[in-house]
What we know:
The structure is a single chain. The strands form 2 sheets. This protein has a 6-stranded mixed beta sheet. It has a 6-stranded mixed beta sheet with strand order 5-6-7-8-10-9. The protein has 2 domains: about 1-90, no CATH class; about 105-340, Deoxyribonuclease I, Chain A (4-Layer Sandwich). Helices cover about 35% and strands about 20% of the residues. Strand 1 (about 105-110), helix 6 and strand 2 (about 135) form a beta-alpha-beta unit. The protein is of the alpha+beta class.
Amino acid sequence: MLRLLGILVTVLCAIAAAVLTWPGFFRVERVFPVAQIVSFRGLLAAAFAAAALVALLLAIARPIRSFALSLAVVMGLAAIANGFVLVSRGGTGTDALPAKTDTAIRVMTWNTAGPATPPDTIAKIAVAMDADIVALPETTIETGEKVAIAMRELGHRMWAHHAEDPSTEWDAGSTTLLISPELGDYAVIESSLNGTSNTSTVPSAVAMPTDGDGPIVVAAHAVAPRQNYMQEWRDDLQWLADQCVDANVIMAGDFNATVDHMAGLGVDGGTLGLCADTAVATGNGSVGTWSASIPALLGTPIDHVMTSAHWKATGSLVLRSMDASGSDHRPLIVQLEPVQ
């Protein structure tokens, strides 16, 4: 009887490990609580490794040796599988951007946590990174204008745009988008401004070029997948996927989702709609952008820059030196080149 119970527990553990390792295969990547657990794949891999070690120690006891060794194998394989996924998305990440060419543009996204991050700090980082597009979730237009003025004083002009949802408390109800005049003139579309078509709770801003042939720029912010907001979160990810239906789209912001959560939302090989994740493509897809209070390799990569076919990412950087800036997110900067 005890042997049968041990086999049953081992099988159940193997199933649970498989579900958490490949949630998209089982179509549970956007189901509570799996969605929350798989967000932290680095921690998950470490937990499986620790469980394997504990099982090996328990194997010292002869009566449960077979059961403990079986669990050790299951946990060990799960740890290896999760480690492989992390490595395939970039492992420990890259530490520098390539030199900026004449045709390249740089995109920065940083959830500033409202007033937690001073405008001058945002401006200095954006200028240091030579950013042409800056997506700032949880940033009011008043703060965004201060950032733009500070950047102008540093010799880097930007136009400030925004969308807001007055029903959402504090600065989370605003998303600001800065765009360099060198990309042309832009305007946020009416549906983003009046909320008739937008993410559910925290707003996103869709900016269209009003002259020239610049990209459609989306400053994205999806609601966090708290238990009471799961459907809104799923709807937000679908809405963001629906914004990437053109070959010339750049989408950046706080998606409150990893690429695991986006399984099934891509089209024609895209990660989300027609857009592909640039951090994964450039070796930073496993580096956590949240929370800045824990090591990046144990955090969750929920801030993204995504592009459709007109753009190719040539480098990216998760800026870990700003962990004490005030925000609970790390800035992500990506360099893009137009595809000829």
